[in-house]
Amino acid sequence: MKDKKNITRLRELCLNKDSFPKAVLDWIEKENFWNIWVPQKHGGLQMSLVEGLGQLKSLAKIDGSLGWTVTLCSGANFFIGNLQPAVVQEIFGVNASQICFGGSGGVFGTAEKQGDSYIISGRWHYATGADYLSHFTLNAKIMKNGTALINEDGSPMIRSFVLPKNKVQIIENWNTMGLKATVTHSFDVKEVMVNEKFSFLYNQVLLDYPIFKIPFSVFADLTLWVNYIGMAQHFLEEATAILPNEQLNKLEDTIEQADTYISGFAREIEATIANQLVCVEDSVVKIHSRAADSVQAITKSIIEVYPLLGVGASRENNQINQIFRDYFTATQHHIFTR
């Protein structure tokens, strides 16, 4: 990752692409980046939180779409911790480096219970990496005899499912100014029968590894936060060739502060897990609030710098223009909006 020639090549391959060329996808697979969090036992890299966040930030600094796609897809492969052992073996038992999960966090469809199976139907939106996925993940309301089932607290009963790519229809509707190569399309599922063993719950962890002891909301906050930092670092790098340092000091300080915060949180979480403790709710809220504030501060700093960069920064074939478009497309993700 520190090879400047490789970084330059990857940036050239990704610049203004609507999807990743085969060379980029082959490189991701070769490096096994879909499986950053997957245990070595199941063919993954089994990175610690600190290592994985550093890797994702480096990828986002190379290219926004590259970092975002690997983050969301490796984050979906993180659900290996929620799957039944037999399913893990079935999916990851052969050629794990080719396994790439992805899907939607929304509840856009239904799963009709029939014996030990479900019939799933619906259209789910914003499946990052849709064209690259081997399996799609989705959330669905559980139905029986046409009636929505509810939990004891009165909330709708929802389960998550993993389906092979040949069971879904991709709807090519990702038409944004940035993060184009993430191909974050929608997908349809039409009355597909799925055995219940391919369902799971976010808060029910079945693999006993440190990384899976992290609350998923915290995991999502940290892994996306580093993408904003990585893209901002790349923006700063390109801007440094255009503007004097004094005009970039605020942006540089804001990025360094964000980096310090996230590094501190990651080390703290690792220490907590090592001591067999849990991440308490106060910490969950604190991390989310800090991440949201940090991203807003980075956004403000980039906005202040961009008008100073000249017409060249507005040309679509300019690297800094793509970074700008990627970053501000990423800000539309709901995770850190107030």
Automatic annotation (TrEMBL):
UniProt-listed SUPFAM superfamilies: Acyl-CoA dehydrogenase NM domain-like
Gene3D superfamilies: Acyl-CoA dehydrogenase/oxidase, N-terminal domain, Butyryl-CoA Dehydrogenase, subunit A, domain 2
InterPro entries in the cross-refs: Acyl-CoA_Oxase/DH_mid-dom_sf, AcylCoA_DH/ox_N_sf, AcylCoA_DH/oxidase_NM_dom_sf
Coiled-coil segments: none
GO molecular function: flavin adenine dinucleotide binding; oxidoreductase activity, acting on the CH-CH group of donors
Protein's name according to its UniProt entry: Acyl-CoA dehydrogenase
